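Figure S4 source data
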Amino acid sequence: MEAKMKKLGLLLVAMSSVGLMSCSDSSKPNVELIQDMMKTPALKPQTYDEGSPNHSSMRVPPKGTKPVGFEPYKYAEDYDGAVKNPNPIAGQMSEEILKVGAKYYETQCAVCHGFHGEGGDKSPVGSKMNKIPPSLHSDKVKSWTDGQVYHVITMGQGLMGAYASHVPQKYRWQVVNYIRFLEKQNK
């Protein structure tokens, strides 16, 4: 009896091995047990989708969801709190921090505030504006806390719009440090 069980077990192992090897043969058609589960129809952005509640192929995330790793800015409505918001990398002027800060500053800020923070009258776009963006070397900006600078980058101020969607959250403090670096260079 025991010998028959061993033979039956070996036979099952052999048959399943042959079955698995035949599954990897790409010349044979794939068998779908549940239709349309292997391949879903692709939708192009901003096209009509009959099955969507708003008939748009672009889906709005469900209410109350947030991206992985995203931290909502807790000082959005609290300017006094933003003033006291401490810079976690205050004073760090390593090459890596300044390189990232410079990248985002030069891409997002320099067109209005100038490549050295000298102000809009010397910048490509700022000089053409009715209200010229201020110098980042002014006594006003120098007296701001790092939290205030971070807040203005995140929420905007006056005619300047919010840059929260342009400068990723994890790099904003590096931009603040880069602005402080430019202030020191201007002395």
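Figure S5 source data
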Amino acid sequence: MLAIPVFLILLTDFRYREALGVFVAAGITDALDGAIARLTHTKTTLGAYLDPAADKLLLMSAFVALAFMQQVPTWLTVIVLSRDVMLVVGYFLLFTMTQHAMEVKPSVAGKLSTFLQICSVTLVLVSLVQWHWVPPIVATVCFYLTGAVTAAAGLQYMMRGFLWLQRQLAGPATQ
């Protein structure tokens, strides 16, 4: 989470190389942290919530900043933000309605969505650094693919929530 303000300051100061470095470093340290937790069996409940929240906040911040800078399509930013807000609000509503916490498990589509979002942001940052010229068609395909998979993952999570709620309301006899 500490990387988010640093990343945004660098990005909005047009220090794209440094912003890319912070974005990549945040991803690498996140992956290492997760791998260490799994290997040493030191997963915590707090970490299970904070880690994906930090990832999502970094990605959402990147999409919002890049949309304002007109580097990613607004529609893609809206899809990314809407899905994440829907997940948080949906989880809160399910808990409020049932007083039971739904187990949060990422789906394959959700993981692919996050991967494609990271690819989209990285593609734009690399393009801004001008290390490699990125053909517009590559960015366009990446953006459309990211939007479609993100929307599909959001619908899948929504269906999971409805099915879980239906089981909760039906009672223990039908579970």
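The mean pLDDT is 88. The chain has one domain: 3-174.
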